[in-house]
Amino acid sequence: MGYRILETDDIPAYLRERGHWDDPDDITVREVSDGNVNRVFLASNASGTRSLALKQALPWVRVAGPSWPLSPDRADAEARAYERLAEVAPDAIPAVHGYDPEHYALVMEDLSDLEVLRTLLNEGAAYGPHTSPTIGRLVARLSFATSDFGMTSADRKALLAASVNPELCEITEDVVLSEPYIEHEHNHWHPGLDDLAAAFRADTALRTEVADLRHTFMTSAQALLHGDLHSGSVMVGVREGAPVVRVFDPEFSFVGPIGFDLGLYWANALVSEERARALGTLSDHADQLRLSWEAFEAEFRALWPSRVDTFFDDAYLDRFLHRVWTESLGFAGTEIIRRVIGFAHLTDLTTLADPVPASRRALRLGRELILHRTRLTDPAAVRAVVDALTP
Ligand code: SR1
Ligand code: MG
Fold first, then answer.
1. How much is the mean pLDDT over the chain?
2. How far, in Å, from the CA of 344 to the mean position of ligand 1?
């Protein structure tokens, strides 16, 4: 029958036809779409003993509508990424029950008992001790396993060929790594940021560094990435008394620079810190960059001995990790800036009664991370930059 956009009323029959649901009379479906790009539905039975999530890619960006067409092929990239993630970090992603490439639809575990990390943080919660280490380990496991350190050369070439995701990469190249530094209709900002937005567009040194990061994003095929690892792509909670962290939405996945995943997570952590500072609710926010980096580095180093050889030796590991660290800082800077003056602003800042002082600090931090990333050699150096920020 071919691709069709599924509406709420279509979901019971769809799930039954696909073998995901037995009783057509005991199902309630509601749409819970929240992200910028796709549609999500939750199906549950009356007793609450069974539930599923269904995510479908539309042929456009959901929040923009048909005026911003986007191939639903991105769901193929997401399904492929989940397959890889299930091999290396099955406990840190939702269970995937099936993928239907004809309808670009994924049927997955219902995570609605958990909360989106950004939502919780915006409500004043702390990160807790598990979230950032889990993210760091997940990035290390996925990136090691899909790098030239964890695969044969031939398998890596096949992975590269299978993982191209051109339209989604172009979105990132545009909205994260270009538009905030030029005049563009996607850009907008609070009038209290006029001077900084203008200064960033006129800053040729900043633009050259962003060009370097953009080119790294385009050419550095280090490992398979999640591709959009912000605080809205993480759910957290407690199940049976144990902390749960789940990373979802890897539709931007492609083989790129590892620092892009870490950088996006760090950007969102640093912005959450600015919100907490503004509200006087600062708790463990300032530890999150360090915790995720330490977990990433420890896991990557632990995996390394299985592949060490004449050229990929311990000296090269140190050099490689240093490069990942530096690039992560730069990508964090670009993500902070786009989330304040470019496309898809962060509610961390937009929901503040006066978003201007925190937004100004965030913009200055983003610029520092991009311009001085090679001088900031450890998490303490980043802390010093944050502590010295002015509005
Ligand atoms: C058109 S998509 C805009 C943003 O939403 C996604 O979550 C990505 O972060 C993308 O940059
Ligand atoms: Mg998303």
1. 96
2. 7
